[in-house]
């Protein structure tokens, strides 16, 4: 890559983006709704039809979190951070929650006398399961952690690629931004090159394939840091997203809507970031939404395990609840998972992140060319979920989900 003039290099510390933290909760809620629908908790046909329609594409929330992860990690990257420091910070952020839920999933498997394959448990513990194409193995133990396996691959690659992004000329960055959605679309015909049994894994799980969404967000963040981003405002991006969502639910095939929604999510993310940078009005940075966004990682990790475990324990797994009981049970699961997520965030995630992550050196804050100063807020973090297991029976529902972040 050719070097860009030094005047376009990003500032060492960019303004923080609380709206992206709030948006994380909306994406997590989409994934929760998708899993609640696929678990058939609601038996009443009319009620079930509503939730099925509302959350039909909820599994695409994982795209949001992968795109958001790339955007936030490039946005918050500092020149003084070494690769080792970056990787240590990422492990400190994600691994404590993962370890707790990994142990909890094994405990649940023991309680229900589910067989657990030691190799699958080890793969899940080390977050290597997304590389295993064997059916079910990538959904083993705590099923949603497949997305963390992908994230670890992204984390490994980013410090190696970021210097190239920093030096790339804007024209090349725009070319990459156009190429990523086209490559996402190309995954669907490319899956014909792998055995049929592995095609879902290839398009939906395989870390290099899913990294296209991560790099889409990363390139957009680099353009925005340089003041080169051109996109709609928050209202316009919202309208584009809703129109894309409705059209995708009604008429568009999966191989196309995955590409269209990746672009729509990117437009929402960049518009929300731009609103924060410029101090414009945003509905996504209210205090309650920021709290919900902060606990969304923990919420993502607990929600499938909790719902399936409770339904199996009560004998209602696969049968559903008739009448008004179905929606009430779904709302009850939402509240219970939020409480557990809040506890996990406060007593595991936050204190261990502070203890294990290296401190960042103080760097004078500078403004990038088009930016205005904005109030400090929590650095956003990316995230979402999935379900269906192999190493144990726990988590035999749902299809996909994920979470990522940056602090």
UniProtKB/TrEMBL annotation:
EC number assigned by the record: 2.3.-.-
Compositional bias per record (Low complexity), positions renumbered to this chain: 359-388
Region (Disordered): 359-407
Domain Acyltransferase: 19-345
The keyword Aminoacyl-tRNA synthetase is annotated on this UniProt entry: no
Keywords: Acyltransferase, Membrane, Transferase, Transmembrane, Transmembrane helix
UniProt-listed Pfam families: Acyl_transf_3
InterPro entries assigned to the protein according to its UniProt record, in alphabetical order: Acyl_transf_3_dom, Acyltransferase_3
Membrane-spanning ranges: 25-43, 55-77, 98-117, 137-158, 170-188, 200-221, 233-252, 258-277, 289-308, 328-348
Gene Ontology MF: a single term: acyltransferase activity
The protein's name in its UniProt record: Acyltransferase family protein
Species, as recorded: Micromonospora vulcania
